[in-house]
Predict the structure.
Amino acid sequence: MSVSQENFNPPLSLRHDWLLQEVEALLQMPFNDLVFKAQTVHRQYFDPNEIQVSSLLSIKTGSCSEDCGYCPQSARYNTELEPEALMPIDEVLDAAKKAKQQGASRFCMGAAWRQPKDRDIQRVVDMIEGVKAMGMETCATLGMLTDEQTRKLKDGGLDYYNHNLDTSEEFYSEVITTRTYQDRLDTLARVRDAGINVCCGGIVGMGESQADRAKLLLELANLPKHPESVPINMLVQVEGTPLMGTEQLDPLQFVRTIAVARIMMPASRVRLSAGRNAMSDEMQALCFLAGANSIFYGEKLLTTDNPVAVKDRQLFDKLGVAMTGSPYAD
């Protein structure tokens, strides 16, 4: 029986005291048992046949001073990406309107900054207010923030702030050296304390070990409050970045990561994020069965390809799932 969130009250106790050996044990469960457990937990908190859909727009592209080894937007790498200045507000709002028409209920704006300047924040706030006026949820990912910048975003109506941990603290320095793990945790705390919903997950397939994936999930689930959205990204390898040529992660290990994220953070939206362009319908269906119930929608994820909206709707039709809060939900 499908669970309706309108008339179902899930258990209120969410754990924040997971132990590493528990997470590793989950990741090593027989696959069928793990997916069954994840789907059972999923049905306690969500309708198993609905997917929340977000659209992501790069509002400022490239020329980033950071050295994230996966990112084509770093100024340190030759990826032939053309830098673009902060977009005019009318172009951003046109993109949001199109995203809503295609079924997205949340509009996410990403800017390639280490940390925005104060003058940039006001322009982003204007975008947030315009998107909110359309009746959409808003999300932003802008890098590190000051207390004052965070307050302005909150006052402007920002619903979600994305700031991923990316990987375990131990593996982090293999991927990024220009920002510390603690910097990321501090930004998350600042956003959470301001009352903005947190969107935080990671990237798998960067050459990390299973233990690193376990430690990432442990860090996320043991935060003072679980992130409301947990994006799980599969590395998209881009020519010119240091992680180009990394050994591909086994797809079933990716599904296992989704399943354990669902078990550990049962009330969070687990988002099937970057890398979907390389995933078969069957792999995506397994991810949804394992507890993923959110996707990014549209042609681009910042600068990398993403399945187009029509193809996504065709997959949803085959699976019999609906998009929440969209004109296609019925």
Residues 133 and 198 are 21 Å apart (CA to CA). The first strand starts at residue 50 and ends at 60. The longest helix spans residues 31-45.
